[in-house]
Amino acid sequence: MIDALQVLILGLALGGVFALMASGLTLIFGVMRIVNLAHPIMIIVGAFIAYWLFRSYGVDPILATPIAAAALFVIGIGLYKTVFEKEAANAKYSEMTVLLTFAVALCFDGLLGSLFSNTQRVTTPAYATDAFFLGDIFIPKGQAYAGIVSLVIIAGLLVFLKFTRFGTAIRATTQNRAAAQLMGVNVQRVSMLTFGIGLGLAGAAGALVSFIFSFFPAKHWEWIAILMSLVVLGGMGKIMGAVTGALLLSVIAAFVGTYAGATWSTMTFFIALFVILLVRPQGLLGDKVEEA
Fold first, then answer.
1. Domain residue ranges in the chain
2. Stated pTM of the model
């Protein structure tokens, strides 16, 4: 019983971080139908920003979270204006974005490789190797802090989407882009800022990831299928779905890794992606697709 509770706690702590990693991806897809294969490399960019600030100026990675988020927000605005805005009205836009974001990922992979090489890095604040002890149960401080901060950021995002005027515009654009435009919503501006917010969330996730996992530029290829499985399981474009999928799969992966081996822990995400596409392609919280 103690062992199961221990695994559950570890899975939930990591699940919060995975939820933040996936939330920006699902937000961008929900508003613009952009399948952003470059999202994981943007998380790596955020991790390198936190790493550089920590090594150069001693800035704690958690305190570096808003800095990384702001930097990625600016990068997101620039990318949207230069790469994605022109063809936004194209009927094949979603299909085109797969290739466009793949190209962006390759460019940033090469840039980071040139600047930092493909050596594994990790930030090392004191709490990264410390833990809380509750009887026979231990909770790694790094994972606990990262999970809590991630859930706070996601809660702030949900409040922003629900109670602000711009958040309402984002939700309207997500539900029906054409109708939102007819009602006076500037969907181009909403799309641009949402893309920036989505990458800002990736930057924040990267700063938190920097002291949980070791990272290097090419690691983003390992995260694409994991993040896609979280987004698809919860329902494409559904932030609460991404959070639910992240917590659920992270806990399952933790149990699988404990009792079947670390290799199968990662396989859990790939198998889940395969099964959910076969059984319920709209995801747990997604809207059912009506047959013609």
1. 2-218
2. 0.92
